[in-house]
Amino acid sequence: MQSGTLSGYELAATAQGFWQADLLAGYLPRYFAALAGAAAAGAADLARAWCRHGFPHYAADAATVRAGEQCLETGALGGSLRRLLADRVEDLRRAAAVRSAQDGAG
User: Do residues 61 and 25 make contact, with C-beta atoms less than 8 angstroms apart?
Assistant: First the structure.
């Protein structure tokens, strides 16, 4: 491994621990643009790792779902990354619906 580069394991572990509720919420607006940017720059493996391990599941709300949908609508993502993001956004959509229903019931 080169100095300054993370192994796949280190990248996954870092991404999984990244989203700590409100502490890093400021990064959320840039997440989908960075994902598409990494894919466009030829870093599809990095983008897949971010999508697989660093997806902001905690942010189950309509705004995050819409941001994910907009990323998919651009057509900038291809193949397996597009499918992976579509699956993550669908999971987020369901979680947001549950959270909304719980908020309405309480």
Answer: no
Q: How far is Cα 72 from Cα 86, in angstroms, rounded to an integer?
A: 7
Mean pLDDT of the chain: 83
**DSSP strand E in 1-106: where?**
none
- Nearest Cα residue to 57 out of 20, 83, 23: 20
Q: Hey, what are 15's tokens?
A: 């991404």
Separation of alpha carbons 101 and 89, rounded Å: 18
The model's confidence at residue 90, banded by pLDDT at 50, 70 and 90, is: very high
Residue 58 pLDDT: 83
Tell me, what's the pLDDT at 15? 67
CA distance 1 to 64: 35
In this structure, the number of other CB atoms found within 10 A of the CB of residue 25 comes to 13
At 63, the amino acid letter reads: A
